[in-house]
Amino acid sequence: MLLIRCPYCEEERPELEFRNAGEAHIARSANIAGESDDDFEKFFFIRANPKGIIYERWRHIHGCARFFNAVRDTVTDKFVMTYKAGEPKPAKLPGAAK
Amino acid sequence: MAKAAAKTKAAAPSVERRPALAGRTLSAPGVKVEMLPPAERISLRAPGASLAVLSKALGVTLPAKPKSSATRDGRTALWLGPDEWLVIDEAGNDPLADCAKVTALHSAVGISHRNVGISVSGPAAAATVNSGCPQDLSLDAFPVGAASRTILGKSEIVLLRTAQDTFRVECWRSFSDYVFTLLSEAAGDAAN
Ligand SMILES: [Zn+2]
Fold it and tell me: Considering the entire predicted model, what is its pTM?
């Protein structure tokens, strides 16, 4: 079973306690009613879906119930790192080339 | 209508309350699974600034460490999340009333009847719970006093280790039949 580190519980916990919650770092416009249809479509529907490193929101739903962010490799299904919700995208990933 | 309502006294309960699965027990070699008596419970949400005064009002220090609990005078506070606790009172006192006096920001919701408690005890207790719960229940990872919301099979539970070989499993009452049955089936296998 995959173990995922929850930044709030501060330990690795079994994947069954977690739920994926889509791509992370998608900022909602402060003036959502003033968005053009094209911009709203981009915000609402368009996702990167990369092959490789992806930044995702996850929720420790059957644990502390908190949302957090995770960096995951879609090829290997490996979690590179996790960090608390609201924190910026990590500038450098552990193990990544300089 | 309003006048009539104002005169109406609170009706005494006309039926006996029967908690879900009350009195059910199952004994297997190495483990005993039994329903625990009713208890008072609250779901408590509060920011860090309110914790000192809430702890004082409740008479038990709300733990700040993940996966931990604190017990005093029959009342246990279980850490569920960074600002969330489950308080269980087995001494017949009402934690909701204690929180009502606190003016510091918090949310306390009475959930006494939402949950039921199931005790799993004996040398094979950890193996029994592990039949449906994926957490590491070794004493290093889940020592006495450790508490966590987690899952058991298809049901969410709150797990508390009350002694080296005893767990308290809290689940929603509508899931209790499933949880008790799963634990009973597991108990039969656990000793093997
Ligand atoms: Zn967590």
Answer: 0.90
Say whether B81 and A64 touch across the interface (CB within 8 A). Answer: yes
> Domain coordinates of chain A in residue numbers?
3-84
Q: Is the ipTM of this complex over 0.85?
A: yes
Q: How far is A83 from chain B (nearest CA, A)?
A: 14
Q: DSSP of A24-74, one letter per residue?
A: S--PPPTTGGG--HHHHHHHHT-----SSEEEEEEE-TTTT--EEEEEEET
> Class assignment of domain A3-84?
alpha beta
CATH number for the domain harbouring residue B82: 3.30.70.1520
B118 with B192, same domain? yes
CA distances from B17 to B9, B13, B21, B38, B170 (A): 20, 8, 12, 10, 19
Q: Tell me what pLDDT residue A96 has.
A: 66
By Cβ distance, the residue of B66, B81, B151 closest to A65 is B81
Looking at the structure, tell me whether residues B30 and B47 fall in a common domain.
no
